[in-house]
Structure formats: structure tokens, C-alpha cells
Fold this protein.
Amino acid sequence: MFADELQMREQQIMRFKSSIALVTGAGSGIGRATTLQLAREGARVAVVDIDREAGQQTLELLHKEGGEGVFLLADVAQSADVQGAINRVMELWGRLDILVNNAGTMRFAPVVQLSEDDWDRVINVNLRSAFLFCKYAVPHMRRASGRRGGSVVNVSSVHASATTRNVAAYAASKGGLEAFTRALALEVETQSVRVNAVAPGAVDTPLLWSNPNLQSGAEKLEGTVISAQGIADAICYLASEQAAFITGTVLNVDAGRLARL
Ligand SMILES: NC(=O)c1ccc[n+]([C@@H]2O[C@H](COP(=O)([O-])OP(=O)(O)OC[C@H]3O[C@@H](n4cnc5c(N)ncnc54)[C@H](O)[C@@H]3O)[C@@H](O)[C@H]2O)c1
């Protein structure tokens, strides 16, 4: 193999060498897989989760693979926690290149039975969190833009486009997240910060199997279940230089689910 081709290959497998990343909901599922992939490819990663044990387990896995990171306990719906997490990253590493807004939650009930508290919790964890992290992190990412620019990846869902009964708050939060992604991308495009979203279909994580629509058979997956690693790969692509000309988009990663509808 030619030397320049070898160098290119090496760059491809270490796309995040010397990058600083922050992943929310990194204690499980898609967030954990994304954290480990970013670290494998050279990033130092802030592992943010509301579940201390789960977040620390992710950090242990990261260390086992030779990665560098830190666990930060935070409720992504709380402004003080969000600002605290970002400040800690700046103290530790002095900049932030990649922000993955992945933490998410669901509540299952018809709208007329859904409590106001449950509506607020879903909207706050899934949507307000992205607003808070972007509001407080993007100014630091701008500063990093002299180096290589920053990248925000929001984790949406197929439910933003086509949904089912009993998940209205979740569907609304993800629809809002996609609109937010496009709007913020326009605001920061001149600062070399890109903002995109992935919209997963059914992913094999604890969140998926908590859905009573699946348990009752009201929703069928028909061979479209994706691994968390499959979503992590899409997130890492959008975060990487390979997606340098991509901003304001939503990438569906759903094994053809939307195409079938
Ligand atoms: N699993 C799927 O089928 C699927 C499909 C489409 C979209 N998604 C989205 O992917 C994202 C990750 O989901 P997952 O399937 O990996 O779920 P998961 O339940 O495996 O992991 C979610 C993680 O987020 C953390 N979290 C929850 N609320 C939090 C909060 N307030 N503050 C900080 N951390 C919090 C949890 O502790 C957990 O570690 C979510 O945004 C979800 O909506 C998942």
C-alpha cells in the first residue's frame, strides 16, 4: 500500500485524534456506544448521565479500551447541571469540539391521560436539554473553530416524522428537536459549527424494550431493529470531518422503516 494511502487509512480510523467530546445519556445504549467509538478514534470524552452507576460503567469501559474521559453527573433538563458540566470540560481540557445531545426519555399514555408533569419531563429531557447544552456550549465551540470547527449531533427519532399512539410528548419533543437543529444550524454556520441530527428507527436498547406498544403488539418492528453501534457510527460520521459540508440535516438511520410507511 502507498504511504499516502496508509496515512489516509490511519486518519480515517482516528478521526477524532485530539478532539474533545461531550455525550449526554452516555450511561447506556446509543450514548454508551457513541462514547466508546469516539474514544476509540482518539477523542477525550465527557460521559454525562443522570445515573451515576451507569455513567461510571461507561467510563470504566472507555478506560479498558485505553481511552481518556471523565464522568459528569447531570440532569440534562436542569440549567445549573448543564452549565456545571460544560464548565468542568473547559476547566479540564480547555475546549469542546463535539457535542452529542443524546439523553432521552419516554412516557406512554394517550394525551387525555398524560399528566402535565410527564409532558413537561419528556419535553425538558428531550428538547430543553439540547437548547441548554447548545446555548452554553456553542460559544466555546466557536472558540475552537480556529482549529477544526465544532459539530453538534442531536439524537432525534423516527417518531419526529411518523409515530404511533400513546407517545405524543415524545413525538412532539423529537419534532421540535429536528426544527431546532435546522434553526441553530443557520445561526452558527458562519462560525464553523455544524448542527445535525440522526433519527434512529428501532434500536436494541433498554428504552426500546420499555415501550408497551411493542409488548402489546400494537407496534411491529418487522426485522428493522438496529444495533446501538449502528447509530453510533452515523453520529460519529456527522461529528467527523468527513461530514464537513453537512449541516442542518437529519439523517434517518432506520433500516428502511420510514420508506415502508
Ligand atoms: N432505542 C430506540 O429504539 C431509539 C429510537 C429512536 C431514538 N432513540 C433516542 O436515542 C437516545 C438514546 O436512547 P437509548 O435508546 O440509548 O436509551 P437508553 O435508555 O438505553 O439510554 C438513555 C440514557 O439517558 C440517560 N438519561 C435519561 N434521562 C436523563 C437526564 N435527564 N439527564 C441525563 N441523562 C439522562 C439514562 O440514564 C440512560 O443512561 C434518546 O434520545 C432516544 O429518544 C432511541
User: Anything to note?
Assistant: The chain has one domain: 17-254. The chain has a mean pLDDT of 93. The CA atoms of residues 77 and 128 lie 6 Å apart. Residues 17-254 form a domain with the Rossmann fold fold (CATH 3.40.50.720).
